[in-house]
What we know:
Layout (H helix, E strand, L loop, with lengths): L8 H7 L2 H4 L2 H7 L6 E5 L5 H7 L4 E6 L2 H9 L3 E4 L11 E7 L8 H11 E12 L5 H13 L15 H10 L2 E15 L2 H8 L9 H19 E2 L3 E15 L1
Parallel strand pairs: 1-2, 1-4, 2-3, 4-5
Antiparallel strand pairs: 5-8, 6-8, 7-8
Helix pairs in contact: 7-10, 9-10
Bound molecules: benzoic acid (BEZ).
Benzoic acid (BEZ) binds next to loops.
Amino acid sequence: xxxxxxxxxxxxxxxxxxxxxxxxxxxxxxxxxxxxxxxxxxxxxxxxxxxxxxxxxxxxxxxxxxxxxxxxxxxxxxxxxxxxxxxxxxxxxxxxxxxxxxxxxxxxxxxxxxxxxxxxxxxxxxxxxxxxxxxxxxxxxxxxxxxxxxxxxxxxxxxxxxxxxxxxxxxxxxxxxxxxxxxxxxxxxxxxxxxxxxxxxxxxxxxxxxxxxxxxxxxxxxxxxxxxxxxxxxxxxxxxxxxxxxxxx
Length: 249
Ligand code: BEZ
């Protein structure tokens, strides 16, 4: 997996703690059991891995960001720096869990193959990530700002938001039996879209000068504000989650 976005655990904590706070239903779908061995793929700083370990399961937590891995280790987790498309595990885990990560992986089939290989026979894969239509307003605004500013270069979209049909196809082609798959619109309160862009879209503008990055943020913010901001409610992001449970055949 190529990684261009920069992850600061502190920044993430301050502006994006909703990512793990809203994921408890996915942990419920995982339904971890004492004694199980579970891989948390894209563990971030490890909040959900800790939640999973409350069941008595043992978690191996992996993330591409060294900063996140350090934070996860500081919480006492068995954490390692690793890419979803280079998992070295073979028949090791009762379950693979992943929250808010797999939309960053363009090589979806490679990730699913590695997840399948990491699981024991009949092991389960439970995940949630951005699906078709996720952040449509924001992605549209980013495209518009790049159109307005040819000097910014070409917008390279780092995200892959798949439909139910596409992802079911990938899962089945890689040897999974799908138990559950659904696209769930989930408008999500955030503090400000400018902070969201700083945390999640910094890779898109990393080649620009500081003043161009400021302009990019201001213009995207202005474009999305009519749809994503209300005086009475504040900001929300137009998240759509793809939630999945599948079993190794
Ligand atoms: C998401 O969780 O849906 C997401 C996060 C960062 C960038 C794009 C999407």
